[in-house]
Amino acid sequence: MSEITFDQFLAVDIRVGTITRAEDFPEARTPAIKLWVDFGPEIGEKKSSAQITAHYAPGALVGKQVMGVVNFPPRQIGPVMSEVLILGLHDADGGIVLITPDLAVTDGARMC
């Protein structure tokens, strides 16, 4: 993988937000969950689709803080316009584990 500059890294706006709503997304080609995430007053609530069904159910996600890239352009995923990329890591079996802060922080706080 090639190196990037610190300025290139700073161009990626990664923020914390709280999931306010989560629903199954049966129309998705790959099993996914529709998420609404509150990134605080500066950014507001954004919608996303996340392939996180291996470890998460919609009902257990509301209130959970997650990390997301908020400055990518929106992307159409089936009938959903995804406005933010929610960040995660693959586990040993390929399931996605969400990246979350280990203590509560203010929604919209930028990763530093």
Using the alpha-carbon principal axes, give the shape. Answer: globular
> Could you tell me the radius of gyration in angstroms?
14 Å
Instruction: For the record, give the distance between the C-alpha atoms at the N and C termini, rounded to a whole number.
Output: 22 Å
CATH homologous superfamily caption: Nucleic acid-binding proteins
Query: How much beta, percentage-wise?
Result: 35-45%
- Spatial strand sequence of the major β-sheet: 3-2-1-4-7
Classification by helices and strands: mainly beta
Average pLDDT for all residues: 96
Q: Any descriptors?
A:
112 residues; mainly beta; OB fold (Dihydrolipoamide Acetyltransferase, E2P); 5-stranded antiparallel sheet; 3 helices; globular
Structural overview:
- The protein is mostly beta strands.
- The protein has a single domain (6-98), classed as OB fold (Dihydrolipoamide Acetyltransferase, E2P) (Beta Barrel), CATH 2.40.50.140.
- It has three helices and nine strands; from the N terminus they run αββαβαββββββ.
- It has helices at residues 6-10, 40-43, 58-61; strands spanning 14-24, 33-38, 45-50, 65-69, 75-77, 80-82, 85-86, 88-90, 96-98.
- It has a five-stranded antiparallel β-sheet with strand order 3-2-1-4-7.
- The longest helix is centred in the first third of the chain and has 5 residues, at 6-10.
- The chain is globular.
